[in-house]
UniProtKB/TrEMBL annotation:
SUPFAM superfamilies according to UniProt: Pili subunits
Protein name stated in the entry: Type II secretion system protein
Keywords: Membrane, Transmembrane, Transmembrane helix
Superkingdom in the source lineage: Bacteria
Transmembrane recorded as keyword: yes
Keyword Secreted (UniProt): no
Residues that span the membrane, as ranges: 12-31
Any Pfam family the entry gives: N_methyl
Provenance organism: Cyanobium gracile UHCC 0281
Length: 129
């Protein structure tokens, strides 16, 4: 039978230091990408929500049947009836969402909100502000 002192118990200090350095390296590499992805998802949700309201307005403009939509940005009511151009603003997102797209337009890093313009004929255009 082996003596209790011949069986290694626990980790050595060097093993713990190696694990800690690997965790540190991984966090330095992965955390910035995680936060960037989180902001891009927030922006994509905001744009999709605004686009949904804009599409409702576009259908109302094409059909001539009035509908009231609320802006996600501030809750203001907009009446869409084909008689006026409407601009619907998205909610503001928290950081750099460079590369996110809205109706074929790509955002740069300094833009924090999308504005979708609904023309009287129902056509949609998007720009970042």
């Amino acid at each position: 039978m082996g003596s209790p002192s011949s069986v290694p118990a626990g980790f050595t200090l060097i093993e713990l230091m190696i694990v800690m350095s690997l965790v540190g390296i991984l966090s330095v590499v992965l955390l910035p990408q995680y936060f960037r992805t989180k902001i891009q998802a927030e922006a994509a949700i905001s744009i999709a929500e605004t686009l949904s309201f804009a599409e409702q307005c576009a259908v109302a403009n094409k059909s001539g049947i009035a509908v009231t939509v609320q802006q996600p940005f501030n809750g203001a009511a907009r009446i869409c009836n084909g008689q006026a151009v409407r601009q619907i603003n998205s909610r503001t997102w928290s950081g750099d969402a460079a590369g996110i797209q809205c109706l074929g337009v790509t955002a740069n890093g300094s833009q924090r909100r999308a504005r979708i313009r609904v023309a009287t004929d129902g056509s949609l255009t998007c720009r970042f502000i």
